[in-house]
Amino acid sequence: MNKKYIIIFKSFLIILIWFLLNIFLNIYNKWMFSEKYELRFPIIITAMDTVANGIGTGLLINALNIGRKSPSIYKKNLICFIQISFYFCLNIALNNYSLLFISVSTNQIIKAFLPFIMIIVEYFKERKNISKKIFLSVFIIVIGVIIAVWHDPQFHLIGIMMAFISVFFVGIWTVASSYLMKSGQFDGIKILYYTSPISFVILSYASAIDEYCLFRFSMQTNTSTKSIILLTQALQALFYNIIHYMMIQHTSPLTSAILGNVKIIAIICVGFWFFNLPIIPNHIIGIILTIIGTVSYSFFKYIENKNQQYTTNKNNKTIEKIIINTED
Questions:
Q1: pLDDT tens, 239-292?
Q2: Is 233:33 a contact under the CB 8 Å cutoff?
Q3: Angle at CA of residue 106, ends 101 and 108, nearest 5°
Q4: Alpha-carbon distances, residue 310 vs 11, 136, 289, 304, 314 (angstroms)
Q5: DSSP 3-state assignment of 129?
Q6: What is the pTM (predicted TM-score) of this model?
């Protein structure tokens, strides 16, 4: 099989797995955070996820025999690992606290702006511009998602600021991770392995301030059942995070943000099917706009990549001719 088609198939498979894991994890978390189990401790649960990430990736590194980087390379990138962990933890904390002031719908509306945030961050980080056609496609996707999730928005200044800052940190975290993977020194597994302990320390401190006492009280009843639920969630988070990094590595930060918006639409559709949620006009309009924007983005991105590949091949042939003429 052509190498080009193998790469396309691999990227498609990673995106499909990410999509399914993301939707399932959202449904599982919604069930886990229900009043039945009294496990509404997102910061502590995320801290537990970092433990699973560290142990799981460590086992994978040894099992796959891909080895750890030398201490000098680790020290060289330590600041970057701290930054990635810091951005990740701030995103979790600010997003959770924003929900104290605004509704889930308002939170999702703000999250829909992530592709725009990603465009801004990528420009300042790598001076990366996008075409007008791709920008228009992204605009249609964002508007579509906002319309689809629009329901009784709550305009609380503090909550909205927290949510926007949270989304901003998601953008920085994603671009920083992508930049580190593009350097060829680390893949998603190694980034998770090195950032998990740092994230655990930060989140443990945050949870000790806000959630620890309530969590300890909650775990005194149905301890075994709740432990199994938390362990299952941590394993799901481990697989999801690995696939998420792989998706960023095989696509781009902007594409991953767009897929995140498409995921919101997919969850709404799942709600129609499994939870018998009422279908209202703004859902239909939003879903149609998102589909149009996503198809347009995929087409224009394909054309852009094809043109870039053609230009690269043309430049390589020109360089080869220059070398041959020089040798003659």
A1: 999 999 988 888 888 989 999 899 888 888 877 766 666 778 888 899 999 999
A2: no
A3: 120
A4: 21, 24, 31, 10, 6
A5: coil
A6: 0.81
199, with CB counted inside 10 A (0-12, 13-18, 19+), is: buried
Q: Over the stretch 199-245, which tens digit does the pLDDT of each residue have? A: 999 988 877 777 888 888 888 888 888 899 999 999 999 999 999 99
The full DSSP string for 240-296 is: HHHHHHHHHHHS-HHHHHHHHHHHHHHHHHHHHHHS-PPP-HHHHHHHHHHHHHHHH
Say if residues 265 and 145 touch (Cβ distance below 8 Å). Answer: yes
Name the token pair of 224. 């075994």
Length of the chain: 328
| Residue among 234, 253, 247, 206 at smallest CA distance from 57 | 234
User: Please, which residues have CB within 8 angstroms of residue 122's CB and are 6 or more apart in sequence?
Assistant: 128, 175, 253, 254
Q: What are the tokens at 129? A: 């511009």
Give the residue extent of every domain in the chain.
42-210+254-327
How many angstroms separate the CA atoms of 153 and 105, rounded?
6
**Alpha helix positions (H), the chain:** 3-32, 42-63, 71-76, 78-98, 104-111, 114-126, 132-149, 157-182, 188-210, 212-218, 223-250, 253-274, 281-327
Closest CA to 44 of 101, 104, 89, 111: 89
